[in-house]
């Protein structure tokens, strides 16, 4: 799809066609959404779709998860006119942090961290990431926010897969994603 073309009719998720399939092998995600971010209308519509379920909800800050969640998170924060907090992989912040170990989608053990001075008790935070596959990364971010007294106002991602972790997150938190129900099985099976 042309990065300047905007379809005459734009249904929820039309911009998903901008994503590119993996051509580098099993060590990479099966689909790359970064091309979607290059399309101005696609990015705007993606953020609007992510925010639609949260219209009228109190949100004090948006937190994006390292690293691709930074793009959608910052765009979402700008749209909401709220501050943006980066939740990082361990070892990148030079201030006091709270850390949380987790297992990512590839089965690797990692540690996530967040600065301790950004979240005050009761602060309502919308968590944004590019993708929720197994839910391990998002659950670590949720734990960090809650350990510091923050409230998870919601979880937003381009796709929340129908995995055990994805279902747990959707059962416990208000969620938003961009994949229409008719396409969800294709995303869950990585087609």
UniProtKB/TrEMBL annotation:
Keywords: Cytoplasm, Glycosyltransferase, Purine salvage, Transferase. Its EC number is 2.4.2.7. The keyword Cytoplasm applies. GO terms for molecular function: adenine phosphoribosyltransferase activity. InterPro entries: Adenine_PRTase, PRTase-like, PRTase_dom. One of its GO terms (biological process) is purine ribonucleoside salvage. GO terms for cellular component: cytoplasm. Residues 57-176 form the Phosphoribosyltransferase domain. It catalyses: AMP + diphosphate = 5-phospho-alpha-D-ribose 1-diphosphate + adenine. Belongs to the purine/pyrimidine phosphoribosyltransferase family. Homodimer. This is adenine phosphoribosyltransferase.
């Amino acid at each position: 799809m042309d990065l300047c073309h905007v379809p005459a009719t734009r249904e929820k998720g039309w911009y998903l066609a901008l994503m590119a399939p993996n051509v580098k092998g099993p060590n990479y995600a099966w689909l790359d959404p970064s091309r979607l971010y290059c399309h101005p209308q696609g990015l705007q519509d993606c953020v609007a779709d992510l925010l639609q379920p949260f219209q009228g909800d109190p949100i004090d800050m948006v937190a994006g998860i390292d690293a691709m969640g930074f793009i959608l998170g910052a765009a979402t924060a700008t749209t909401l006119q709220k501050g943006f907090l980066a939740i990082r992989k361990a070892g990148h912040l030079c201030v006091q942090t709270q850390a949380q170990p987790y297992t990512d989608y590839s089965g690797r053990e990692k540690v996530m961290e967040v600065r301790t001075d950004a979240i005050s008790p009761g602060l309502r935070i919308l968590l944004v990431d590019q993708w929720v596959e197994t839910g391990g990364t998002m659950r670590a971010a949720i734990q960090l926010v809650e350990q510091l007294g923050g409230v998870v106002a919601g979880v937003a991602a381009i796709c929340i897969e129908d995995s055990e972790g994805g279902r747990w997150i959707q059962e416990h938190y208000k969620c938003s994603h961009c994949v229409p129900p008719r396409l969800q099985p294709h995303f869950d099976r990585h087609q």
